[in-house]
Amino acid sequence: MFETILDEEERGQVGIGTLIVFIAMVLVAAIAAGVLINTAGFLQTQAEATGEESTSQVSDRIQVVSTSGNVTETGSSTGNFVVDNVTFVVAKAPGAGNVDLDETTIQIIGDQGQNSTQVSDLTTSSILDVENNVLTDNSDRAAIYLNVSSNDLSNSDTTGGDFDNYGALDPGEDLTVTFTTASGASTTKEIRVPTTLTSDQSSVRL
Fold first, then answer.
1. Is 185 exposed, middle or buried (0-12, 13-18, 19+ CB in 10 A)?
2. Is the distance from CB of 206 to CB of 67 less than 8 angstroms?
3. DSSP secondary structure string for all residues of 25-74
4. DSSP character for 134?
5. Among 150, 196, 140, which residue's Cα sits nearest to residue 173?
6. Residue 6: what are its φ and ψ, rounded to 5°?
7. What is the per-residue pLDDT for 173?
8. CA of residue 87 relative to chain centroid, distance
């Protein structure tokens, strides 16, 4: 039934060939496994980084706690009052990480057009009780003063506003203000100046 192999050299050659093929298959499989592991590791790292960036774009934003405007009389017309400065009290949104206010961009869109600037470039950018202008705790509060006046006001404003080609806010005027943090998370605040402003008002809630 079985063939008897008398030539020992012929028997050894068959075994070595099979062993070589087996070793080659193992090496190929090991190389392929290494490539797959490296690729999986790279994809995992990239996915984690993308996930963190996506989360930051959603959560690392600020919230506007209150908004008020400074009422002043224009120099061109007695009895005509406008809002020349808007104060935003802001805080970290729930779940947000540290927010650097200096790296936050403010965009305004209103009846007079649109413009944008960074908080660090504001002519008056006092930040209250916040170290290095960074919101690190949910209890931190910052006051951002947005000067929207032009040079024709009676309050001796000679520097102009924080936005080129944008003047003071007239009664009844609407303004959309968007705060965008360094991570790309945005918060939009709609404000409207009361239709009536008088000399009895030094400031109004917006």
1. buried
2. yes
3. HHHHHHHHHHHHHHHHHHHHHHHHHHHHHHHHHHHS-EEEEEEEEEEEEB
4. E
5. 196
6. -95, -20
7. 92
8. 20
Contact 141, 128 (CB under 8 A): yes
Q: What is the pLDDT of residue 117?
A: 85
Amino acid residing at 141: R
CA-CA distance, 191 to 206, in Å (whole number)? Answer: 5
How many whole angstroms separate alpha carbon 80 and alpha carbon 197? 8
Radius of gyration of the chain, Cα coordinates, nearest whole angstrom:
34
Instruction: Please give the angle made by the CA atoms of 94, 96 and 100, to the nearest 5 degrees.
Output: 130
4: DSSP letter: P
Segment 182-192, tens digit of pLDDT: 888 889 999 99
Nearest to 88 by CA among 113, 106, 110, 61: 106
Higher model confidence: residue 164 or residue 189?
Answer: 189
- CA 150 to chain CA centroid, Å, is 29
Contacts of 42 (CB under 8 A, 6+ apart): none
CB 110 within 8 A of CB 165: no
pTM given for the model = 0.67
Q: Is the CB of residue 82 less than 8 Å from the CB of residue 72?
A: yes
Cross-strand pairs, 87: 68, 145
With contact defined as beta carbons under 8 Å apart, do 166 and 181 qualify? no
DSSP state of 8: H
